[in-house]
Amino acid sequence: MKLYTMAGTCALAPNIAIAWADAPIEVICLERGQQKEDAYLAVNPKGQVPALIFEDGDVLTEVTAILDYIGAAHGGTGHAAHTRDTKLGRKEAEALSFLSSEIHAAFKVHFKPSLFANTPKTEKAARHKTYWRLDKYFEQLGTRISETEGPWLLSKKSYADAYLYIIGRWVETTPMELEDYPNLLAHQQEMEKDAGVLLALERQGMTPRLYIVDEENSEEE
To answer: What is the pLDDT of residue 211?
Structure first.
């Protein structure tokens, strides 16, 4: 099997899941623009990543669907997809849906405002409204992490954390500051201590954001 990814995209989440599960899935990182070329469009006509190709040629797209498959088929640290009849499994499904349908969808206005507005003035207004929405979402996520005593989004590490990690990185592309959301920052710090996360970043030609705190010298920073 093969997973197609691209640096900076939500495809990092299933890449992390593959690392956590040690699943026998080859990770192929596309260069920016290759997702619109004929070779890849033959794989995924949507022209988007991620896409998971099975040995029989079947193709699975959409982050949450791929995460569910990896968890159910390969298990590994952090997954709950095979236990949807437990509280953690149900909450993981809920969290993944929220991250995808609400927060990820809101970021589309930030990344491609021209899809939602037709003048510079209306694009600015659309983005301003989006940052207001994201602020509310991040406050909700921070509260959830606090309720579970952190640093994970749920009571234990789950695939929702893999999705939240890339969303946390996207904050840096906005006028917003991750430091304004301490629980989200702590989440990023914990994720960047994880060997699976570091492996997934390397496979996509990405680097940690250096959120890891040097405990010996933290008072000097």
So the answer is: 63
